[in-house]
Amino acid sequence: MEWLSFEGWVLMVISVCAVCACKALMVKREEKGVEREGEGFVIPRGSWGWPLIGETLEFIASGYTSRPVSFMEKRKSLYGDVFRTNILGKAIVVSTDPDVSKMILLNHGNDAFIPCYPKSITELLGKSSILQMNGPLHKRVHALIGVFLKSTSLKARITRDIEKVIRLSLSSWMDKSYHVHLQDETKKITFEILVRVLMSIGPGDEMECLKREFEEFIKGLICLPVNLPGTRLYKSLKAKERLLKIVGKIVTERKMATEKNEEKGMPNDAIDVLLRDSGESDGMQEHRLPLDFISGNIIEMMIPGEETMPTAMTLAVKFLTDNPVALAHLVEENMELRKRKVQSSEEYSWHDYMSLPFTQNVINETLRLANIINAVWRKALKDVKIKGYLIPKGWCVMTSFSSVHMDETNYENPNEFDPWRWKEIGAAANSNIFTPFGGGQRLCPGLELSRLQISIFLHHLVTTYRLSAQKDEIIYFPTVRMKRKLPITVTPLEQ
Ligand code: HEM
């Protein structure tokens, strides 16, 4: 090896020594991890990876491939369905076992786990956000919102509103010569519906202003947690202050109007629900929710719906346009419903949309394959023992939904978009091997609203236009989205 100088040799020897030292340290860290065994429960096997960065690089790299679940699969084959690792600076137990994940989502009885988010998210949310709060207050707010979003009165009204927003949006595509980026269009639709449900705001300056500030706010959800003037986090926190002012004004005006008119009747939106609740139904003394708490939570409730919904709508179209047989089947089913409605001159009901079996199967399959929320994170408040495993106090735990959804023991040919599989799975759509909306105490309260919105969107889309999508790719990190925002061309069916 004449090409290597003396300095080169020295550098090489130092590098080899450094790598060996790191590896030795890693082995030591791995040994340390299994030390705390007791009463037949073991800390899951796994690797801590490299000092400081752990296995973060491999985790992120897998997110940029077409199979993000490969990170989990590799470790699952080495260490079992529940393993430990170190990613994003945290010691973490990953569960790909549906039974273990279920126990975690159920909070292992009570008070065992709390949500665990990256620092930038916790800074932006604030402690009294529904996404972070715990205990009786969380139960109260979760139940209030859940009951409202599932109420029959909302279902009837929101079906009309969603139809209106979607029809208007579809007709605006004519001005764009029928070429649209679907991801952008579905974002607009979703935002409009979300602000109607949460605070009864319709199109106009106020909504545009909310949209601008909200977009600025959520840019900081995944960023360096440094809050200094000029940083991303700082700008997002400032946008949140402005949002709080706008929403705070709406909440205060509503409170005054409610007191004046002593309005009772059904609540119109989430603001009404939170304003009217006295807390007495919990058997507690009257304890109204403070106005700033309501404003903050209204903003934070927009976060889980704002990105997930447009992604689900866009990916449903992506999977369907990649699979012409499924698309033809969906068109046939929806055309039949449309014909029935035209003949009877009846309005569509919530039930009409939700009882289209193939369309519901397409939605299930889209949610399974897209894994829009691929996992949820919790932190153990105490040592927790589940199914022979010990999750030590203070550790994070990740329930990986995508590993379960993409496991061939649960779904045959899991990488294939196969809506017909749901004909057989049927009731299992609600089991613990299908959890796109999470489960347990934090099960998504927007579950039914989401399904309704996707159903209405698909119905009007395929009964108004013929579709063709351009080639595009799904990106899985940091969130699921289309690389080119899914450009599609639509041709009106009645031309
Ligand atoms: C396809 C669309 C959606 C998906 C895949 C989805 C998924 C999820 C998941 C997995 C969770 C559980 C998080 C956890 O356990 O930490 C969740 C929670 C939540 N979702 Fe959704 N969601 C969707 C749409 C919506 C919509 C439209 C809304 C708003 C109306 C909404 C509001 C919420 C709220 C408020 C929570 C927090 C519940 C709590 O912590 O008590 N979601 N969602």
From TrEMBL:
Q: What is its EC number?
A: 1.14.14.147
Pathway assignment: Steroid biosynthesis; Hormone biosynthesis; Plant hormone biosynthesis; brassinosteroid biosynthesis
Q: Which cofactor does it need?
A: heme
* GO BP annotations listed: brassinosteroid biosynthetic process; brassinosteroid homeostasis; leaf development; petal development; stamen development; sterol metabolic process
GO terms for cellular component? membrane
> What are the record keywords, sorted?
Brassinosteroid biosynthesis, Heme, Iron, Lipid biosynthesis, Lipid metabolism, Membrane, Metal-binding, Monooxygenase, Oxidoreductase, Signal, Steroid biosynthesis, Transmembrane, Transmembrane helix
Q: Catalytic activity, per the record? A: 3-epi-6-deoxocathasterone + reduced [NADPH--hemoprotein reductase] + O2 = 6-deoxotyphasterol + oxidized [NADPH--hemoprotein reductase] + H2O + H(+); (22S,24R)-22-hydroxy-5alpha-ergostan-3-one + reduced [NADPH--hemoprotein reductase] + O2 = 3-dehydro-6-deoxoteasterone + oxidized [NADPH--hemoprotein reductase] + H2O + H(+)
InterPro entries with a match to the protein in the record:
Cyt_P450 (IPR001128), Cyt_P450_CS (IPR017972), Cyt_P450_E_grp-IV (IPR002403), Cyt_P450_sf (IPR036396)
Q: Name one Pfam family in it.
A: p450
Q: Name one GO molecular function term.
A: 22alpha-hydroxysteroid 23-monooxygenase activity
The protein's name: 22alpha-hydroxysteroid 23-monooxygenase
Q: Which species is this record about?
A: Perilla frutescens var. hirtella (Perilla citriodora)
